[in-house]
């Protein structure tokens, strides 16, 4: 008999994960003022791995050869490829713009679940996809026409969107692994393996893999931002999100990812004094509305909820 799922706690875990993820761009922007993208991402995941180290000892993996292959693929896509791409985009745009672009992820996730996880999306779902796409286009157009030193760019926004497409594969592969293994095991070993990959990739891709300045020259403010990114926005969020996915379908949990663009854009506007033009505000509203529509108004159902045929 399969274990009973707690949908309330599952949704709560995903909502908290989305909220903490919303702080990631804010902390990342602080660190990027003193180091390059590679160093920032590497330090972030070293802190995350340090936090998860006790779980590596208490949750020994029982992966098959096929499971190890999936874990290696998920770790590569979800950590080096996704985060280096995403924060390369952040270096070229603003926190608020990058956060709003993340609002496309719930709809992208619903589409991916339809195509690869055999979920069924109705007309409302497809309409939400169109609305979300229009919103992303409006944000991108706002970036193209923006002026000033601290402004968003079309290239930066597109890098963020590309990272979201990569994140879809990471989410679905982890979902598949967690059908046979605990969320804690998949999270701890996935992040540890991904961090090991960063230790190889970052020195190959960046001239100064630990930043252009000596480690001793990094300010306390930057170290605190890196520690918060690793502990709160990586280790904690991934554990919460992965466990939440064991309790609720991925497409239904996707709406809670909208906590990320909401909190991220607010932090960018109020703490970093960024501005959002009319086009970006309209696009962000459309993206959030589309994500709510697809998870509350759509009758999309996950594979486990579909009748057997």
Structural summary, described in words:
The chain is mainly alpha-helical and 309 residues long. The chain has one domain. It has helices spanning 7-21, 24-32, 37-58, 65-90, 95-102, 105-116, 123-145, 154-177, 183-205, 220-245, 250-253, 259-270, 278-297. Helix 6 crosses helix 7. The protein is globular and about 50 Å long.
Average pLDDT for all residues: 81
Kindly state the percentage of residues in helix: over 70%
Supply the number of structural domains. 1
- Give the structural class: mainly alpha
Flag low-confidence runs. 145-149, 302-309
Sheet-strand content, in percent, reads under 5%
Cα-to-Cα separation, first versus last residue: 21 Å
| SSE topology string | HHHHHHHHHHHHH
β-strand number: 0
Shape: globular
Helix segment tally: 13
Write the layout of secondary structure elements.
Elements: H1 7-21, H2 24-32, H3 37-58, H4 65-90, H5 95-102, H6 105-116, H7 123-145, H8 154-177, H9 183-205, H10 220-245, H11 250-253, H12 259-270, H13 278-297
Compact description:
With about 300 residues, this protein is mostly helical. Helices cover about 70% and strands about 0% of the residues.
Name the descriptors.
309 residues, globular, single chain, mainly alpha
């Amino acid at each position: 008999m399969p274990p009973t799922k707690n949908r309330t706690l599952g949704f709560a875990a995903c909502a908290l994960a989305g909220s903490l993820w919303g702080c990631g761009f804010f902390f990342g922007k602080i660190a990027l003022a003193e180091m390059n993208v590679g160093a920032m991402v590497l330090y972030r995941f070293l802190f995350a791995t340090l936090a998860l180290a006790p779980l590596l000892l208490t949750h020994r993996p029982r992966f098959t050869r096929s499971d190890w292959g999936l874990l290696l693929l998920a770790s590569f896509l979800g950590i080096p490829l996704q985060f280096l791409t995403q924060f390369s985009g952040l270096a070229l745009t603003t926190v608020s713009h990058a956060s709003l672009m993340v609002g496309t992820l719930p709809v992208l996730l619903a589409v991916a679940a339809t195509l690869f996880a055999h979920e069924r999306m109705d007309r409302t779902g497809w309409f939400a996809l169109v609305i979300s796409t229009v919103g992303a286009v409006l944000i991108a157009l706002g970036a193209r026409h923006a002026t000033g030193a601290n402004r968003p760019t079309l290239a930066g926004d597109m890098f963020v969107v590309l990272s979201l497409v990569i994140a879809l594969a990471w989410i679905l592969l982890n979902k598949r692994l967690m059908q046979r293994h605990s969320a804690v095991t998949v999270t701890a070993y996935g992040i540890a393996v991904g961090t090991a990959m960063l230790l190889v990739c970052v020195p190959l891709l960046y001239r100064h893999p630990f930043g252009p300045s000596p480690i001793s020259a990094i300010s306390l403010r930057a170290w605190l931002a890196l520690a918060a990114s690793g502990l709160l926005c990586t280790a904690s969020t991934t554990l919460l999100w992965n466990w939440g996915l064991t309790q609720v379908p991925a497409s239904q949990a996707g709406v809670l990812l909208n906590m990320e663009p909401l909190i991220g854009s607010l932090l960018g506007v109020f703490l970093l004094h960024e501005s959002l033009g009319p086009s970006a505000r309209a696009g962000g509203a459309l993206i959030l509305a589309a994500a709510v529509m697809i998870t509350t108004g759509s009758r999309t159902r996950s594979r486990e909820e579909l009748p057997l045929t």
